[in-house]
Amino acid sequence: MKEILIVDDDRVVLSSCKRILESEGYAVSLTPSVKEALENLAKKNFDLLLVDVIMPEYDGMYLIGKVRENLPRLPILVMSGYPTPETISSGMRMGATHFIAKPFTPDELVTAVRKALVKEQEKN
Predict the structure, then answer these.
(1) Is the pTM of this model over 0.70?
(2) How far is CA 2 from the centre of its chain?
């Protein structure tokens, strides 16, 4: 079973993503902060990181940078309610695998997760 860590300060987004992805057979862990995400990533191996861009204290780009230093092969799917070209290109430059704009449908989320996981398998 593929393990996914979802990082977003919005509890509604976290619970929605968890419900959708668990119904597709994924194991899902949730965290509302970058600090907690880094702690989780240090303790457990995940197959995918799904991260919001805009969050208090540290943002998603900071998290991506830290993850790339320590877990360069972990696929990262960035989600944002501000899908500007700058946000998308910045996320990709930092090392994100894919980008999904909020709000997204359950099908869009599942498709993006599958694509990110398949892309990583193709690299191996």
Answers:
(1) yes
(2) 13
